[in-house]
Each structure stands twice: as C-alpha cells, then as structure tokens.
Give the backbone structure.
Amino acid sequence: MQHLPWNDLRVLLGVSRTQSLSGAAALLGVNATTVSRRLKVLEGLAGSPLLIRDQSGKLRLTQHGLALAEQAEGMERHANLAEAVLGRDKILHGTVRLTAVPFLLNRFIIPHIHSFSAANPALQVSLIPDNRNLSLTRREVDLAIRFGEPQEGGDAVLTQKLGRIVFAAFTAKAFYEVPDIDRPWLTYDPVAAHLPQAGWTEKYAKDSGGKTAGVLMHDLEAAYQTVLHTPSRAVLPDVIGSKDERLVRLGDQDGQHEMHRNVWLLRHRDMRGVDRIDAATAWLTKAELFDQA
C-alpha cells in the first residue's frame, strides 16, 4: 500500500484555504505547477477528484476532498504539538480566513488588526466582508464573527460569545437643525426586515410619528454612510456613532427597550489545535473589541 505523502496533503490544505492554485503556491513557497502536479498525484492515490471549480472560478473541495482535508488537519495539529514538545519557538505561517458582515470588519476588526499582525508578522489574515453566512463546515472560511445566537453546523462548530453591541438613534450634526419632519428614518428593505435594527427603526418611526426615507437600507454600513450624508435619522451601534464627531445621538424613545445584539465567534471543531487558528481565536477573545456587559 502506498502511503500518502505529507507534502501533498499540505498542498491540499493550501488549496482549501486559499481556493486557488496560485494562492496555495504562495502559501507553501512553491510554484503553481508544483501545486498542480502534487494534486494530480494525490487525486490518483485517492481514486476520485478532490477539487472542483465553482462558477466564480474558485476551487472547492469535493466531499472526498473534505474528508481527506479533515484528516490532514489532524496531522497538522499533531505536527504542531510535536514542535511544542521539542521546545521550538514556532513562527506562525499561513493564512487565517476571517469573515463577518462588512460593518463588523470595517468598524470593529480592521481598526485593531495591526496588533495581531505585528505579533505574527509571517501570518496572513484574509478579511472577507460578506453578508452571507459563509460555511465553516465546507471550509469556505476558518473563523466567522456573527450577530445573534449561532445556528450553523451543530456539534461540528464551536461557538464563543465575544460580547455585545448596544444600539442608539443618530442624525448628522450638519442636519441637526433640520425639522424632524424633513429628517426621515432610514428603514430597511423587506428582504432585511428580519434584522433587529430594522424592527427598532420601524418602532422609532412609528412612536415619533416621523416619516420614513425613500432610500431603503440592507445593512448597517449603508445606514451609517447614508445618515452621514443626508438629512435623516438611523439606528446605529452606539460605540461607533458616539465616537463620530459628525453625528449627534438622539434621545431614547419612551418605552424603548435597550437595543443590543450579541456577537459570536465560530470555528470548526476540527480546527482546534491548528496554531494559526488558535492564535487568531485567542486574540479575538482577549482584545475586547465589543461591549463586555
């Protein structure tokens, strides 16, 4: 029986993490031709395709590829543990793929990411802003930051609460003197009506007797930019709005309950012990990027 070569399994992991031959080549310090050749050898041993190319041109693991990658990640974890037993100071390499909705990445992660990068100069962090729930179980991402109680992956996904974000109503300082009737509320498109801030905004508009804007929001980033540049009112994260000198916090509505959303970190259970993922998880947990109340 022919043994699976570890270097070829590392290539499979590299392609899984970067979703391209060139990305895997850069990650592993080889050329794309070498990556392609090693994958063909591995697929020959496996007896079936391990990768497919999706409509966007990205490489995705097949079910057989996913199963093999999970075993390879286990081998990687044990190799890292062996390094620790030998007492070697290990410099972290590779890529951590972190996804969140654009507002969380832009306003909470990116302003602080330098501290993590400075501590891990050989490690790359791929920040993926996406309103969709990219899959941890299909290895589309390594870590995901989500609003609300996690529903994804069952026992295969580990969850950890990072904190919460409190919301409040804001208007632009430049338009503060404009009568309320001419500063409509930025409500949400029906496809985004499930978002808590959509419901809070509707309640503000109803209770205040205010108009709603003709421009409909889909996410927080759009609401933030729109309220900055138009005579309008919006429900935004308090910590962001209160720090922006261009905005004015509005008074709370009578009977309006505290508005907040919990923020969670998700990762696949099989990624425990993968050094780069553990390092990113530890940073996100200890950085206190969100309200800890």
The first helix runs from residue 6 to 18. The mean pLDDT is 85. The domain at 1-90 is CATH 1.10.10.10 (Arc Repressor Mutant, subunit A). The longest strand covers residues 157-172.
